[in-house]
Amino acid sequence: MNRGRGARPSDGESGEPSSGAMRPGRADAAPCASLAGRSVMKASIVDFSGLCTSSASIPTVFFRFSYRVFGADRRRGAGRRRGGRVGERSAHRGTSGCGTAAMNVAAFAERIPFRGASPFASLGAAAQAALMRSASVRVLAPNEFIYMQDDEASHLCFVRSGHIRLSYLLEDGSPVLFGILPPGDSFGELGVFEGGSYHDMATTVGNASIFRVPVAAFRALEPAHPELTLALARTIARRYRAYIALTRSLGLKTLNGRLSQAVLRLADDLDARATYLGREVPAVGGFVTQSDLGLMARGARSNVNRALKAWERDGLIAIQERALLILNRKRLEALSLEEGL
């Protein structure tokens, strides 16, 4: 679990930081890696002194600290480190906020694969074609930053392949993982709708690619296709409901309650299935690590590991090829309902 210096985990236990799949041993350099544990806090003492400047505010200092811990310096190299936050953002924007490869969608006659539940899936053929002509494809490396929190909102994005993490930084610099998006989902909508900045942070999970529609191009299409504005507004409303659900689940007192909500929410969002003993069950893929679950459930990775093992013994879940299979959804739901959610 991520916490400030000297704080204790919310579920009352400490754990060494480590990224892993549903079973221990998997290394993962996710930007939202847990900050819990002595080894990371020792690193924070070394790095923190070099982040403070005479003009830096406390939230900015914590932002720089968290950004370095997430691995951006290691990923971008020395050029990423120069100049503190200014240098980091300059390097980020030097690639248009994305990876190195770009393609025009219309040139390949490719369609944006909206998910069935997405309001954009209900667009008419003309509106979809117009949106497709304005889009480009960006191919991204694992754990690549797509945009940073508070960056100027320049594009509306859709997941083309792979998965995207959405997270945000609190005022003290600690990250909260909001969700993991599958292909066909959109993100960055609120910043586009407001015409301001992004309110979250988007990073890739493994290799991924996205469709990007420039804000100016989207606005230019709205007079001829007003359904685009309606789809954007409905998407923001869905995202708002999801934020409320997350806030309520984080208010649960026990890790079991918070973790069960996180697992069920991920299973619903990813909408994946797997076969277990001859029947199809909801599944959360192995690309979702225990550290991810800890960031979603406000718990240390070691405590998440113990909870998952207990659930496996009790027959609530099964682990198969690093994927988490939900065998008894009602019992998982009861873990949070017992607390009056």
Automatic annotation (TrEMBL):
GO MF term (any one): DNA binding
Stored Pfam families: cNMP_binding (PF00027), HTH_Crp_2 (PF13545)
Residue ranges annotated for the Cyclic nucleotide-binding domain, each copy included: 119-221
Domain of life (superkingdom): Bacteria
Ranges for region Disordered: 1-28
Stretches assigned to the HTH crp-type domain: 253-330
InterPro entries tied to this protein: cNMP-bd_dom, cNMP-bd_dom_sf, Env_Response_Regulators, HTH_CRP, RmlC-like_jellyroll, WH_DNA-bd_sf
GO cellular component: cytosol
CDD domains: CAP_ED
PROSITE patterns, alphabetized: CNMP_BINDING_3 (PS50042), HTH_CRP_2 (PS51063)
Keywords from the UniProt entry: DNA-binding, Transcription, Transcription regulation
The protein's name: Crp/Fnr family transcriptional regulator
Species: Plantimonas leprariae
Classification lineage: Bacteria, Pseudomonadati, Pseudomonadota, Alphaproteobacteria, Hyphomicrobiales
